[in-house]
Amino acid sequence: MRSPQDLPVTVEAAAAVLSRVAIPDALLEVAQILHDAGHEAVLVGGAVRDALLGRTHGDWDLAASATPAEVQALFRRTIPTGIEHGTVTVVHGRGDLRLHIEITTFRGEGSYEDGRRPSEVRFLRALADDLARRDFTINAFAWNPITRVFTDCFAGLADLRRGLLRAVGDPAARFGEDGLRAMRAVRLCATLEMRLEEGTAAAIGGALEILDRVSRERVHVELFKLLAARRPSLGLEPMYETGIWPRVLGPVSRVEADAAISAIELMRPDPVVRLARLLWPLREQRGQIEAIVDGLKPSRDERARLLSLTDPAIAPLGRLRDPLAIRRLAAALGRRHLADATDLLAREWAQLVTIEEAVRGAALAVGELAIGGKELVAAGIAAPGPGLGKLLAALLDWVLEEPARNTADLLLARARALAA
Question: How many helices (H) and strands (E) does the chain have?
Answer without folding.
Answer: 23, 11
